[in-house]
Design brief:
The chain is α/β, with parallel strands linked by helices. Helix content is about 50%, strand content about 15%. Helix 2 packs across helix 8 and helix 8 crosses helix 9.
């Protein structure tokens, strides 16, 4: 869509000018990936989860990324402490409730973060969002059910309850905000052959959120990230080169963020 093409380019320019500092309290498994994708996309990462410093870092950062991938009591306390600081300063907060359906503890911690932090953007796969919506039979943990798409009306209900922009990732990525749903039709299944794709997406969305409104940030981040995935996959020979794909994905992400896009973006406003 032409309107998003202009917005994507405008936000990319703003990211280059601002070089947003992103504070991550994220998944130990993918911290390096998140740091590298932030740099590739034009931002500056900082990873800090010590209780003694998270408030100070949150005050300095332009956006906060919270990820429930490798939780424990102290890290959740750090998330809440940083989140309250960022919220008070009206800075965007992206929360990824990774594997929220796996354990009672994760669900309890997610609920505390929703209540005490009030994230700006909540991003999860359809299985995680289904768990949040208490849909029996769809508690599938870290990986979403193959081919399953949470019904749009349920996503809208969840968005109202959480009072945040909801990003549902899957075969079709969807952004729900203020009763409107926008679909982003970019991406490639090769991303499922590496760990960390979802965590890196959080960082990219956070960069766009650091320079503009949250719904637009989600759409722009999904589009650029998905197009980078498509182009990296097209340059990878066969399904058994995940290392090659990952390296090419970083290259394509940097290329997309530092050059003008050609062609049209596959973005649809559903209602």
């Amino acid at each position: 869509m032409t309107e998003y093409k202009q917005e994507i380019e405008s936000r990319k320019d703003a990211i280059h000018a601002k070089k947003p500092l992103l504070h991550h309290i994220s998944n130990y498994v993918t911290l390096s990936d998140c740091a590298n994708i932030t740099i590739a996309a034009g931002g500056v990462p900082i990873m800090g989860d010590a209780l003694d410093e998270v408030e100070e870092i949150a005050r300095s950062a332009h956006a906060l990324v919270l990820n429930l991938g490798t939780p424990n009591k102290q890290r959740v306390r750090a998330m809440i402490k940083a989140g309250k600081t960022a919220r008070a300063l009206e800075k965007p907060i992206i929360f990824d409730p990774v594997g929220v359906g796996v354990s009672t503890a994760r669900m309890r911690w997610a609920e505390k973060i929703f209540t005490e932090v009030e994230p700006t953007i909540i991003k999860g796969n359809n299985g995680e969002l289904a768990a949040l919506a208490n849909l029996a039979g769809f508690h599938c943990g870290v990986d979403s059910l193959p081919g399953y798409q949470l019904p749009l009306e349920k996503l809208k209900e969840l968005q109202k309850i959480l009072n945040a922009v909801v990003v549902a990732t899957g075969a079709i990525d969807r952004v729900i905000a203020k009763g409107e749903c926008i679909s982003v039709l970019h991406g490639d299944l090769y991303s499922t052959r590496i760990t960390g794709a979802g965590c890196m997406l959080n960082s990219v969305i956070a960069l766009f959120a650091a320079v503009g409104d949250a719904p637009g940030a989600a759409v722009c981040g999904l589009a650029v990230f998905g197009k980078a995935a498509e182009d990296a996959a097209s340059k990878t020979e066969g399904p058994f080169q995940p290392g090659t794909y990952k390296a090419r994905f970083f290259d394509e992400m940097a290329l997309k963020m530092h050059t003008r896009a050609t062609g049209e973006w596959k973005i649809q406003i559903l209602e």
